Amino acid sequence: MLDSPRNLSELDHRTFRTDEFWRVIPGWKDVSAAEFGSHLWQAKHSIRKLDQVQSILGDRISPSFIEDIAAGLRIAPMNVRITPYVFSLIDWDNPTDDPLRMQFLPIASQMLPDHPYYMADSLYEDVDSPVPMLTHRYPDKVLFLPLTTCPVYCAYCTRSRIIGGSTESVDKDTYGPNPENWEPAFEYLRTHPQIEDVVISGGDAFNLTPRYIRLIGEKLLAIPHIRRLRYATKGVAILPMKILTDNEWLDALLDIHRRGRELGKQVVIHTHFSSPREITQYSLDAATKLFSEGVHVRNQAVLQEGVNNSIDEMVLLTRKLSYMNIQPYYVYIHDMVPGCEHLRTTLWDGVQLEKNVRGTTAGFNTPTFVCDAPGGGGKRHVASYEYYDRENGISAWSSPNVKPGELFLYFDPLHRLSPEAQARWNDSDSRMAMIHDVIRRSDYEISEKARTKIARRLEGGAVATGGKR
To answer: pTM to 2 decimals?
Structure first.
């Protein structure tokens, strides 16, 4: 159940942290504002190992909590990588409940077994990939993944199967930027004139050098039918100093942005704030700098238990983003990927949050809440399901213009269901009966081939690719 709103002040979203918040970290108490504000210092001092957490925090963290993190990392699908900026914003007096710690440092005491129908590639990005590094699902849009590294590694990453390096629980085929390996993707784009929109993600576009920002942008803008480029990066949220101090990188981006405008094409940034507690004066300054250069920035958040699944947090996030001239674009229901069951919410949480956020600000600044239908159905509005069995946590979705004649199933986390529903899930016959009942009640005509596909997936349990889990 969602927390009741506390009647936020109408001006709360205009307040931004300006204090030297990093100085409460024992290892950084003498770091100057000039040092902390440098993207080079941030990169050099990123947290990559557990012993760094202990040495930097000193007696501010207990040995038992360190062991909880260590145990969490042994079973998590992602390695550790956190910028000092984000690390300093964590409330180390109460790290267990802190929304930033939850996103970047998993602890075993909070983690839960994966759902029976989790999928390493929940969105079928690999299945819908015609050539390496490219996913083509919507007729006029593709996803391009030129690298698999990021400035931070999120615990809830939908691409944990390839991002963040191999861990104790998952073997991964990761890769860095290599222009020779991109050519098949560029050739595919040249020969498919229906494609107008390219998302450049990964990994994270922040980890592309200025040379590669230009190379990719110039190659794509030179294709006549491509009209829109989106550089996708969480960097604006977790490393705003790069926008403020890495002039070479920003100049490369702005060059591509200007070239796009000359050709009558869009070049924008998609970023990834999920909590208002990630936002400080650095965020506002970075957003203002991009806005002053005419660069449009959109935000895509992920709905997460304990992070942003309250009305106040989501309203405050939406208003703060709007105030910074960042468009709140999407809020995703959490994908059914491994290692994230404790972070997933019910679909009903998303429906109720959408209802409560709508009307708190202008419509064009109200994010669309979506479920990215497992199995490659694409993004569907949270209330557009064909049928939703709330008691048993099963929803059915169609996607007529993406994969006509198919039905896609999303499952709420089992720990959020009633004891009676959980008992039904523990019985294989009851489980299948519930699922087939939802398919029947959806009253959506699907092909026999689609029924066979659903049956095979359900009979096989979890469909996991590329890992040891």
So the answer is: 0.94
